[in-house]
Amino acid sequence: MNKEIIITELKFKAVRSSGAGGQNVNKVSSKVVLTFDLENSIGLDVEEKTCLKEKLTTKLTQDGILILTCDEDRSQLKNKEIVTKRFFKIIIEGLKVPKPRKETKVPRAVKEKRLLTKKTTSQIKQNRKKPKL
Questions:
Q1: pLDDT tens across 71-86, in order?
Q2: What are the beta bridge partners of residue 70?
Q3: In this structure, is residue 130 part of a structural domain?
C-alpha cells in the first residue's frame, strides 16, 4: 500500500449539510464526501484489492467504489481531515491478517467440574422421585 499514490486518487466533494443549523447550513457547503475507486487504484496490489473487496463488501458500491461522508464539524477543512483519517483507518483494518487460532485441550479441571455438576443435577432429580417401599 502506497499512501502517497492513494492520497492523489481520493476525490473530495463538498455538499451542503442536512439537518438543523440555522441559515448557515443553507449557504455553506461544509459536508465532505470522499470517493475512492478500489478497482482502478494504482496504490494497491492485486492481493490487497482482493482482500479489501472481501472485507469491505458492505461498504462498497457495485462498481467497487468506497464512499465516506463527514459532516461532524462546521469547517470543511476539518471534515476533510476527519474523513481522510477514517478512510485510512478502514483501509488499514481491512488489510490486517488475523492471527491463526491455536487449538488447545480442554483443561482437566473443567472436565471434572462439568461431570460434578452433572452428578449433582442427577442426584437432585433422583430425590424428586417417590421413594420405593
A1: 888 888 999 999 999 9
A2: 32
A3: no
